[in-house]
Specification:
Length: 85
């Protein structure tokens, strides 16, 4: 496994953390849909893992690092805002 493919893996993992939050929000907003109860601190941890994965992707010069890093930082700040309000 080359360094670039490993960096791409971490870039995709960071994007998976980003999309998991929005999938959870959409599923919980459906009136009779499945309700997934995760406390806010879990989401903060998941977004922290997303930032770490984006950092590894940036160090490894992944093709996705320029997309993964701002999304991971933005979602971390957004989750902090949602938890605080």
């Amino acid at each position: 496994m080359s360094l670039e493919s490993l960096a791409n893996f971490f870039g995709y993992a960071s994007l998976a953390c980003f999309f998991s939050f929005w999938l959870w929000a959409i599923l919980n907003s459906i009136p009779n849909g499945p309700k997934l109860a995760l406390p806010g601190l879990w989401w903060l941890g998941i977004m922290g893992v997303g930032i770490a994965c984006a950092g590894i992707a940036a160090i490894g010069r992944s093709k996705l690092w320029f997309l993964a890093m701002p999304l991971a930082i933005g979602m971390f700040l957004f989750v902090m805002y949602v938890i605080g309000s």
